[in-house]
Design brief:
This is CopG family transcriptional regulator. It comes from Gracilibacillus oryzae. A hairpin with a 6-residue loop joins β1 (7-14) and β2. The protein is extended, with a radius of gyration of 16 Å. It is α+β, with helices and mostly antiparallel strands. A two-stranded antiparallel sheet has the order 1-2. The protein has one domain (6-71). It has two helices and two strands, in the order ββαα.
């Protein structure tokens, strides 16, 4: 399944207020991922106008699902 790939880049940044080093993540929206997100955006109408809010919602939904599945 070579179509199911995702490109994610990681970099370190400094929080200007605290000086703390934080990790930044960049997700490349292309290929099959772009196609799937485009379908969701089309079906959701005006709820999503770009990938940022959609990816954020998908991440939180996935995290919540993971936490519920792995509760002890």
């Amino acid at each position: 399944m070579s179509d199911n790939k995702i490109s994610i880049l990681s970099d370190k940044f400094e929080n200007e207020k605290t000086g703390e080093q934080v990790e930044g993540v960049t997700i490349m929206i292309d290929g099959k991922l772009k196609s799937m997100l485009d379908i969701i955006i089309e079906k959701e109408g005006s709820r999503y106008t770009d990938y940022t809010e959609l990816v954020k919602d998908i991440m939180f939904a996935g995290i919540n699902q993971y936490v519920e599945k792995h509760k002890r």
